[in-house]
Fold each of these.
Amino acid sequence: MSWIVALLVLSVLIFFHELGHYSAARFFGVYVEVFSIGFGKKIASFRWLNTDWQISAIPLGGYVKMKGQDDLDPTAISSDSDSYNSKKPWQRIIILMAGPLANFVLAWIFFYAIALGGPQALSPIIGNISKNSPAQNAGLQNGDTILAINGKSITTWDEVSEQIKSSEGSLALNIERSGTINTIIVTPKITPSQNLFKETVYKRMVGIAPLGTVQTLNLNPISAFSYASNETYNSSLLIFQSVQKLITGVVPAKEIGGVVSIVQITANATAYGWMSLLFFSALISVNLGVLNLLPIPALDGGHMMFNLYEMIRRKAPSEEIITRLTIGGWVILLALMSLGLYNDITRLMQ
């Protein structure tokens, strides 16, 4: 049952991505011939708003087929007023960008629902203090609850980390210990540590770790707005950084996952409740948005690149260049999909 839910979630994410393209195209008067969830053979369809809406056999994506635009045949253009090609480059860019934007908006909605449902976060309680660290030298102890740093109220451990990392000079920590409140001055020092990508980085640290106590955040609709915005931004930034690290070789190619990994992770999240499912759905939605913005021909980002070129040079790239780059883009895309599938199969066998 969880795998069925996972496939439904993936289909919803794809649907909203393509709905973004569809809505923008219709807004600019472009005739949309087909709206498909999945690729390959059509297994169900109906006609509505002068468009064929269909479900296809291979649930690995989807597409919106607009008049005068065909990824498999870049030369299939049309000069009719309701075609994609007849629109100005900036209008085409908006149509292309609307798909990834829909994924970011959907992720924000998921995070907002999580915020209203009471997300959990680590409490700002000290659980471990490194030997000979600034924290130990200042007199901090296990079990101290950090209430404020430099006058700024603290409610979660993430806020503690952020305040220390972005601080300058010494820190005034208001801590609660055995029912009394004390102020302790701590001077962070630059310390080497590892980031999420296992790179050695240097940042300001005081030598404390959380106790591990989890608390539920009670957010009102206004604070939930800020929570959802921050989570969407941070998730997008993390995926952009992951792509960058993958290109530069920091993240090994074996870490690439395909649709099997996506479905498996989503299926596992289903077992932990609706909030966990929404969280991973939001991450996958952001992932789809970011990856489709990459400047690879055959992806939205690649098409935007062609239109930006046309805006700057006042002329479209030649059909030969578009065809060659599009074929190259498909080769890259299929290679990445094959690698992801290979890694998925390898992990399943292990």
Amino acid sequence: MNKDIIISALGAFHKVDLEDIRHFFGADVPSHVRKNEFVQRLGAFIVERPQEWLGNMLERDLRLLLTLVEAGPEVPVVQEYPDYPTVLETVGLLRVDVSEKDFKEIWIPKEVYDIVAPHIREAISRGETDGTFEMERAAFGYLNLYGVLTVDEFYEKMLEYNDWAGRWSVEAFTSRLVESPVFKLCRIDLGGEPHMSAPGIYEPAKILSGRKDFPDLGGLRAFTPEQAIEAGSGAPEFVFGLGSPEGKKLVEMLLNLGYSGNDLVLEEHDIWMNSQMVWGDDATEEIFGCVSDREDDIETFEDYNDCMEIVAAYANSLPKWLLGGHSSNEANCLKVILQSEDDPIMDIIRKNPYMSLYVPPVPGDEPCPCGSGLSYRLCHGRNVN
């Protein structure tokens, strides 16, 4: 009976997709057989060898499984929509109701519950103690900090982490990395070259193309393994820099506005993600949504403007995918230092007023201080209306 629901879920996929599922689950199923036999063998592997494939799951999938197991079979759990779904949702081993706009309900079928419940806690404990989860967080972290890396750049960054962690030989570490679920999930081909892209990025080619406009930023910014682990923890609600002066002010402000618990985490994450999309008006408005959504609770315009400035200061301090991990503040430093009118970075900054999210307010019809050439009311002034 357990096998029937697995077979039904797998049977809905094309053969090429089943190959990806086999690879992700680490199933030793030959690929040269017909689809029906392939589905039967892959289904048997999932039913009979859960201890093996659970070890190939992302930490996020395992922790979601534990939550659903603790809730019980067929019991829906309400969740916000994340930036990207879990592998187990995508494969169809979990059931999801997305009829509501602002949240979804997710639950584990009884048949799948019976397969994973006896093994899920052991799988999580193993990932916590053998370094697998930490390696996964570092991998996600480097991708979250840079957005897109070539595979060679990704290896280089992760080898820096391995030197710091000191758990494995280079050979053993490289083997673990190639077989890690992060590598399987995030590897893509761009222009015929293998790359790694952070989860939740839908246009990685746009990021790589945009970086060409910033040749003088000096390439990728350096980050420590500790910073990578910070940026790669808490999937899928990644966040970075909350321990910085700007981050501490942001957290204090959000708490004062009444955010707490998961709502606080989601707001922090949303600012992080939307600050990466500085070329779009919608994203810019979303960055300040945590303040505008609570405007009725803010007594004066001065207090409101202070809150907006705190959000902008934090967003400007964050590493940007478009800038190879450099922040908007660092781009603005170049604006001060490089005075040449024909400097390419100066030109890009002038054409992209949202590269710096906050500027001092001026009368509406005066030129915006960001240097865009627009009036303040048509540029940055729109965000503090």
